[in-house]
Write a structure and sequence with these properties.
The protein has helices spanning 13-24, 26-29, 45-53, 65-75, 90-103, 126-140, 169-175, 193-205, 231-242, 253-263, 268-282, 292-298, 305-311, 313-316; strands at residues 3-8, 32-39, 56-59, 79-82, 108-114, 152-158, 177-180, 207-208, 211-212, 220-223, 247-250. With 334 residues, it is an alpha/beta fold. The strands form 3 sheets. It has a 7-stranded parallel sheet, with helices on both faces. A two-stranded parallel ribbon has the order 7-11. The protein has a two-stranded antiparallel sheet with strand order 8-9. α1 (13-24) crosses α8 and α4 (65-75) crosses α5 (90-103). The relative contact order is 0.14.
Length: 334
């Protein structure tokens, strides 16, 4: 049975890539009947690309829960991929989306959360910590007899996207450094955005007696990259991949803010999220990898840092403008 799917925040990096992968990879496209994309910026380039692939784009108007309920019901969606949008009101908007999904009785819910949220401090890392509250909202529908929405849930906690390192491509090219405010003593394991999209697509397309496949239904999936790396080790991986020597430079949070504001067009709330994640690294709360679920769900190995830097070699060398679009290498499995 083909799935009718709704994906929120399709105008963002993650939502766009999941939708694109579902429609362009034959492993998934044959299992999809229809995709409705919810977008805060429906006239953007990503939405135009998705429209050309057959996605029905619906403008998202926060504060109008009734309209969102109607949109979900009219779409006939049996599954929602709920991605919090890059927006200063991310929390409030996501709460509305969960409420709308409940009222529309969407049976299968895949919620994209953040690795590290469970270790975040409410005062030090509030943007990260709020994902715990959002996860609770999604999971609490399981015990709500008034809706079918809690019947088949999956939560994916995605780690630090390796693509965020592309923000520092100018320093890599001009100064031969990767400047990060992560300290000298601790490590983290960046994950390629494409691996997150691959996991999500696999879950969304797998069927079971109760909605999602019984292999995935009810799972809390934590995703990180396969290599724990301190700043120096990350720079070494980049050096091997790019054929040029790069060094890690440990910078202050104040300097990191200046770099991000100057070199990123992301919403300020997303930049705050990055700074909070870096603070988790400095506190030693990211010294782990979590790849077993990725292997189990997709059947393949996550992208190694050296592979990541090779994929984006032109961007780091300043030979191509960074498009923020994950270049998915052809891989088997899944």
């Amino acid at each position: 049975m083909s799935r009718k799917l709704c994906i929120t925040a399709v105008d963002g990096n993650t939502g766009f890539l999941i939708a694109e992968l579902l429609l362009t990879d034959q492993r998934f496209s044959k299992k999809i009947a229809e995709i409705t994309g919810i977008a805060l910026h429906p006239n953007g380039s990503r939405c135009k690309e998705l429209t050309n692939l057959g996605v029905k784009i619906i403008p998202h108007k926060p504060g109008r829960v009734r309209e969102m309920v109607k949109t979900l019901k009219d779409s006939g969606a049996d599954t929602i991929c709920l991605i919090p949008p890059a927006h200063k009101d991310k929390f409030e908007i996501t709460v509305e989306l969960v409420e709308a999904a409940k009222k529309a009785n969407v049976q299968n819910v895949l919620f994209l959360s953040s690795a590290g949220c469970d270790l975040a401090d409410e005062k030090k890392q509030p943007r990260l910590r709020e994902f715990i509250e959002l996860e609770t909202l999604v999971m609490s529908t399981k015990g709500d007899p008034s809706t079918a929405t809690g019947h088949s849930p999956v939560v994916i906690r995605a780690g630090f996207y390796a693509e965020n390192l592309l923000l520092y491509a100018p320093q890599a090219k001009e100064d031969g450094v990767i400047p990060l405010p992560i300290g000298e003593n601790h490590k983290f394991a960046p994950i390629a955005l494409g691996d997150v999209a691959l996991t999500a697509a696999t879950v969304l397309c797998a069927h079971g007696k109760h909605g999602f496949s019984d292999k995935h239904r009810g799972q809390l999936i934590v995703l990180t990259g396969p290599m724990l790396a301190a700043g120096d080790e990350l720079a070494t991986a980049a050096s091997h991949a790019l054929g040029t020597e790069l060094k890690f430079e440990n910078i202050s949070e104040a300097e990191a803010k200046k770099v991000l504001r100057a070199q990123s067009d992301s919403d300020p709330s997303e930049l705050q999220y990055l700074l909070e994640y870096y603070s988790l690294v400095r506190e030693g709360k990211t010294n782990y990898i979590s790849t077993a679920a990725f292997h189990d769900v997709t059947g393949v190995h996550p992208q190694e840092p050296v592979e990541f830097f090779k994929v984006y070699e032109k961007e780091f060398k300043g030979e191509e403008h960074e498009s923020k679009k994950r270049k998915v290498a052809a891989r088997g499995g899944g």
